[in-house]
Amino acid sequence: MTGEAFPDPLAANSSWELDPPRPIIPIPAIMSGNLRGKRVLIGLPGLGWRSDLRADEKVIQGSRTYVPVMPESEWYRAESEKTEVFAALVPVDRVWVEDFGISGSSRQNGNQLVSLDEPSRRPPTSAAHANSLTGCRAVRLLDDGGEQRDLRVTTELYTSESGDICARVANELEWYRWSWNGRFPQTLEVPAELLWIE
User: Fold this and answer.
1) Helices in the chain by DSSP H: which ranges?
2) 62-85 b/e (C-beta count within 10 Å ≥ 16 → b)
3) What's the whole-model pTM score?
4) What's the total number of domains in the chain?
5) Concatenated DSSP letters of 87-99
6) 139 and 97 together in one domain
7) Are residues 51 and 97 in the same domain?
8) Which residues contact 162 (CB under 8 A, 6 or more apart)?
9) I need a surface site. Which of 15, 17, 68, 119 has the fewest CB within 10 A?
């Protein structure tokens, strides 16, 4: 033996990292099954889109199909407090459901032009490269390769006591409940390399 140490497999492959989370891929609600609780976008091609909404099951009135749509905060409140909330009835052809693509399938660099015929696909952005984090929807990558979604970021990036670059997140129900009752949500410190903005 020459006294050489065995090479560290992670050091040999220093480019190893977890795949980014799956991107948001909007699909027409008319092509979707169960809509209850799904994140949706509403709008008209060529004019624009509104997000941060949740849907309930489709309803038929006369010969038209509608989707009850409400702000996400109202949906969480209705689910949490078991109350009725107002939902606008939006024609099904003006509703798109947020679905997930394949991880790493739509990486983008910088701003790119999009078609106005449908809502744009949203690739995730690393928290380390985002302009602002507080209030943004977030995805936490898990050690097993899974994803934890339905999170909101409560801070910008900071240096933790251990010297890591981190941000704090809360689950969305607690994030919205904060505005109803004023109680600060329980948060979790997440290293920046494991945190992505949806």
Assistant:
1) 9-12, 72-81, 172-181
2) eeebbbbbbbbbbbbbbeeeeeeb
3) 0.83
4) 2
5) -EEEEGGGEEEEE
6) no
7) yes
8) none
9) 15
